[in-house]
Amino acid sequence: MGKGAQNYGKKDNTGKTSSSDPNTYPAWAKEVHECEEKYKVDKESGLTDEEVKKRLQIHGLNELEKHEGPSVFRLILDQFNDTLVRILLVAAVISFVLAWYDGEEGGEMEITAFVEPLVIFLILILNAIVGVWQESNAEKALEALKEIQSEHATVIRNGRKVSGLPAKELVPGDIVELRVGDKVPADMRVLTLVSSTLRLEQGSLTGESEAVSKTTKPVPEDTDIQGKKCIVFAGTTVVNGNCFCLVTETGMNTELGKVHSQIHEASQSEEDTPLKKKLNEFGDQLTMLIGIICVLVWLINVKYFLSWEYVNGWPTNFKFSFEKCTYYFEIAVALAVAAIPEGLPAVITTCLALGTRKMAQKNALVRKLPSVETLGCTTVICSDKTGTLTTNQMAVAKFVAMGRTADAVRFFNVEGSTYNPTDGKVQDWPAGNMDANLQTIAKIAALANDASIERSDKGYVAGGMPTEAALKVLVEKMGLPSSLGSGSSTDYNELMGCSKAWSKSEHRIATLEFDRDRKSMGVIVSSNSGRKSLLVKGAVENLLERSSNIQLQDGSVVDLDQRAKSVILDSLNEMSTSALRVLGFAYKSDPSEFATYDGDEEHPAHALLLNPSNYPKIESNLTFAGLAGLRDPPRKEVRQAIEDCREAGIQVMVITGDNKNTAEAICREIGVFGPNEDISSKSITGRQFMEHHDQKGHLAQKGGLLFSRAEPRHKQEIVRLLKDAGEVVAMTGDGVNDAPALKLADIGIAMGIAGTEVAKEASDMVLADDNFSTIVAAVGEGRSIYNNMKAFIRYMISSNIGEVASIFLTAAIGIPEGLIPVQLLWVNLVTDGPPATALGFNPPDKYIMKKAPRRSDDSLISPWILFRYLVIGLYVGIATVGVFVIWYTHSSFLGIDLSLDNHTLVTFSQLRNWDQCKTWENFTVSPFKAGDLLFTFDTNPCDYFHTGKVKAMTLSLSVLVAIEMFNSLNALSEDESLLTMPPWVNPWLLLAMSVSFGLHFMILYVPFLAQVFGIVALSLNEWLLVLAVALPVILIDEVLKCVGRWTIGAQSRAVSSKHKAE
After folding, report:
1. So which residues are the catalytic ones?
2. Would you say 171 and 56 are in contact if contact means Cβ atoms under 8 Å apart?
């Protein structure tokens, strides 16, 4: 099973790509009798039960393979395959062990010590749960694909017809009957047609916009998938006709099975998003940084836990203090906690989730959060044509009526691009004064028509063939002649009022079904007076061959001479070159065979209708009336969206299964190509691309590119090559055939209205309105979100640099520990969280879609930004350590009295050598008050540097919180001053700062929380000190921003202009 799919779309050693396994029998290129001989079956009797058993053993069941996904245990382990997570895990383990060791001593700090590792473990567990949940949903596309498979089939076996046979039991060689509405159970060769025509809807597999006619005639062996007119494919649906087929491929060897294999293959090669790669790089650098700083801290403080004496020049009498060693272990843990922005994953997730809400309001439904960020650096959009660039609703764009003389015609342009009858009108229309020729065209379009238009939640939708539905809409726009009424359908209370009025005036009594030979469809109608008419629509050339007359503007009929025929054919050629699908209208008044026919099966004329071979004779000696050009029109807003892409430096490539001429005309109209641009090298078929000698060179061309008649493997190869060239690729699609490419692309975008469930499950984003312009709006939103994410990542990282600097300075100077790990964890997770999240609400840059896309290898933090935040971080370290030192050594600072609590002052030298306190003579400490607590040190004055440091620690923590709040204002813009971008441009940030300060007040003034965090309440004077030390961070960054605008800013703009020019 599945052997035929493994090399699908891969290049062989000749450099060309094959659409089929070389061992596959090319049934599409063989006559029916040859296929019967190959598969050793007779179409009348089918296979025997014994033969079926043999073939089941060889080929297996007709079902798609089940790919076992990774186990839950494997998924859990994968969540810890991240540098930042591993650092946190090590820190948590060490912290837990140290807490356990310290717990033997008891005391107030025991609770604090255990809070920290437990919180870290909780973060890691939540992160793992979210990751496992996301990845367990990754293979839904494969499950959705299985739902497309048919469950039952009608088969001929042992000379008998078997209905309701489970489709999975089919084997190559089975004879299967297909009827209207059936889902094809396997890839099959059409043997015989029971009906005159057979049409299948296979657009979801091949990308074709209309139902495809099938035949029994063979086609060349190298024909592409769309050209295999004698093959019906698994998962497609019969929309018209009845036939018998021979099963040629089952299970994974079908085209549907090959798509299944490609989806699975693409899912195995999913890459990290650009931001994820940057964060991984940052994690690696952070690991190195923490290691270096820990080594430095240990080297600086080795004298405190390891001492020795020199005897004869050699160190001896080593003394090791385990207690001091564990203390510096705790500093290492504190460094890890300080260096890692623990709140970053939560803030990123929150920001992306907020981004998805904004995008949902613009009809872009994001299924996978990271794709929001990836959208921002999209460089190429590979778009399908049908339904994305176009409306996927056929519409009449122009029709031609006859003039006053046989060699004169009249052209009418028709507005509108949907099935809504009120969407546009016929230009230069003689409203209420329809001449006889226009009435004839309207009557044929209304009555030789089996379609309907209905109003639904999704707007106006067609029932039946799209081309016929478009003609019904034309009838409504033409209105009614005075003999039936006047005005258009908008004058009627009911939908399709004009068509219904025509049906009341002349009712249908017989239908001459369309077939591929005569390429026309006719109806016989009877007027209320009993007069019969034959109304025909079809291919213009075929109708002209069977027409002998032509109807003029006033209704008179004249001979159809060569001159008149040339004028009509010129009109046909003009519309065809504009990629319009052209239908002609003709009629025959009073057909003699049906003069008395009223639908009675006993009437002699009824026998003529039962045999389709009689239809060409019945549809002869026609009177030609006019012709109409139809198309799937481009969406109105797409042209501007394409222009927006061009300005934003995003290349647009159109990849469609439709024919080349139609696709080129649409691409010119929407601006992918210029109206007079030479596109001979830019518009090729999928097959031509696969055979191209320089595929990468072709894709490297500037401007728009078009690939028509593209198959699934062509789309995959294009996406793969673009990604290899460093492009960030967004790929749109709606069909089963698009799913592998959607999975492979950086951003897979499925259609919400026309899209199959397979495409939606394989995608990262779903367009609720199937509109290309929605993609462009989403890209702009993605860029804005990325800029905001950069803002809060820079903010959080700069805050962490400050924390590391604080701990490093503490250890380097040798003063008591000013910040403990649980406090740093609180700052990183809770206090920093709201401002960082609020930065995600920064208003977008108004020129955001005028800039070239950022490159996926652009650094998250440039050297200048890193320098800026090293300066800021150094200030944070100096400020937090400085306020600790000030409290111990100064009674006042900048005029602020700090002596109100009566705490004892020490010298800076004493503070640095606090561990030698027991050797100091006459050292005493006065009792002092901190909040509601009174601290006394009568029995052990040296405890002043342990439990007595609680006020100094509180000041350090408060300065850290205040600085980080003010620093969030700096992060509003990378370069702009707060004078030009004041804080109130983002009111959410001001609210977030209030929340963070509120949370800090809570842990300060709620006694239980104050005990957990080892802090006390502060007085008004002490808060003034905090503000005096914290506020300068704004002034420092303003100066640095000013320098950046003068120097680095000019260079960045020059580089950006160069990238845009490229």
Report:
1. 384
2. yes
